[in-house]
Amino acid sequence: MLKPGAVVIDVGVNRIPDATKPKGFRLVGDADFESCSKVAGAITPVPGGVGPMTITMLLWNTLESARRVAS
Q1: 51 inside domain
Q2: Residue 18 near residue 25 (C-beta atoms within 8 A)
Q3: Nearest residue to 1 (alpha-carbon basis) of 33, 27, 30, 36
Q4: Cβ-Cβ contacts under 8 Å for 30 (sequence gap 6 or more)
Q5: Is residue 1 part of a domain?
Q6: The pLDDT of residue 51
Q7: pTM value?
Q8: What total of structural domains would you count in the chain?
Q9: Is 22 buried (19+), middle (13-18) or exposed (0-12) by CB count in 10 A?
Q10: Helix, strand or coil, per DSSP, at residue 49
Q11: Domain range spanning residue 48?
Q12: Is residue 2 one of the residues assigned to a domain?
């Protein structure tokens, strides 16, 4: 049910059992990456997709708040 060329921004994070990993699980998103990547024009990976942007914007907003308080 994905339109060809669509952009998929996967913000879900789920743990699934994986005995090959030291912690016994791996992180996956809500979207099925393998099938979506065949149809989508772009897709964010999990982990590492939107997380860095979230942290960047939190830091930006903190600095902006500090600037407003200081002026």
Answers
A1: yes
A2: yes
A3: 36
A4: 10, 11, 12, 14
A5: no
A6: 82
A7: 0.65
A8: 1
A9: exposed
A10: coil
A11: 7-70
A12: no
